[in-house]
Amino acid sequence: MVRRMKTGEFKIVAELLRRMSGEQEQTLGKATATSPERAMVMAHEVFVAEGEGALVGACLASAGADGTGEVSWVFVEAGWRRRGLGQKLVEAAMAYLAVDRQCKAVRVYVVEGNKVAEKLYETLGFRRMGSVWEVRS
Fold first, then answer.
1. Is there a contact between 63 and 101 (Cβ–Cβ < 8 Å)?
2. Angle at Cα 32 formed by Cα 27 and Cα 54, nearest 5°?
3. Mean of the pLDDT values across residues 111-130?
4. CA pair distance 94, 89, nearest whole angstrom
5. CA distance 76 to 48
6. Domain range spanning residue 19?
7. Measured at the alpha carbon of residue 87, what is the angle toward residues 44 and 106, in degrees to the nearest 5?
C-alpha cells in the first residue's frame, strides 16, 4: 500500500533511508527532529510504501513556483523490490503534483548509470533531457 507519510513517521523514514544507503551519510538519513534537513523534508510531500505493517519505501514530491514538480529520494528496501512499489510511489507523487499542486511538468534526477531507475521513469512516460528526466501532463 502506498500513502502519504503520517505525522510522527519522520524518524522511521529517516531510518529506512539510513538502512538503504548502507551506512553512507545522506542528507535525509542524518536529519534530526529539529535539523534544517527535517525542515527541507517537511517542505515536501512524502509518500511511503507499507509492507507487512512496516514502512519499506518512500519518495518526496515538491512543486516549484514555475509550475514544475519534482520527485526525489525514491527508494524501496531490497527485500521489497521488483513488486511495483517504486512505480506506485512515483505515480502517487505525480498524481499529487498534477492534481493538488497543478504542476504541468514533473522532473526527476537520476544518478548516471542507474538503469533500474531509468527504466522505471521511461515506463512512466519520462524522457531524458540531459541529466534530467521530465514528463509533461
1. yes
2. 85
3. 90
4. 9
5. 9
6. 2-136
7. 50
Number of domain units in the chain: 1
**Considering the entire predicted model, what is its pTM?**
0.82
User: How confident is the model over 85-102, as a mean pLDDT?
Assistant: 96
Distance, CA of 16 to chain centre: 13
Q: Report CA-CA distances (Å) from 41 to 8, 46, 53.
A: 13, 8, 23
- Collapse the DSSP code of 27 into the 3-class scheme (helix H, G, I; strand E, B; otherwise coil) and give the result: coil
**Helix boundaries (H) for 50-102:** 85-95
- The predicted pLDDT at position 47 comes to 95
> 71-80 burial string, b = 16+ CB within 10 Å, else e?
bebbbbbeeb
CATH number at residue 61: 3.40.630.30
